[in-house]
Amino acid sequence: MYILGGVCGNLTSYVHTSELTVCGTGPVFALIGAWLIYQSQNKDAVDKNVSETMFRQAVAATTISFVLSSFGRIDNW
Question: Cα separation of 40 and 21, whole Å?
Fold first, then answer.
């Protein structure tokens, strides 16, 4: 999942910008997305309180990453 997320992130970045880029967040967000899908499909696998806490942490990490990437020359594709 990590490698596939990296490849997809790099290809998406290449399509949207002609500059040479290095994508480090694509694989991380792919893992977060895969985990969120797993949690939604297997709600009985983890305690509800733990699942909700981890979901909030994933949303917070995504929000912080988006806000930090808004400053400077960062490729958000």
Answer: 33
Neighbours of 57 (CB within 10 A): 11
pLDDT of the chain, 77 residues: tens digit per residue: 889 988 888 888 778 777 777 767 788 888 888 988 888 888 888 788 888 888 898 889 888 887 877 776 666 55
Report the distance separating Cα 11 and Cα 28, nearest Å: 15
How many CB atoms within 10 Å of residue 51? Answer: 16
pTM: 0.67
Record the tokens describing residue 39, joined without a space. Answer: 């949690």
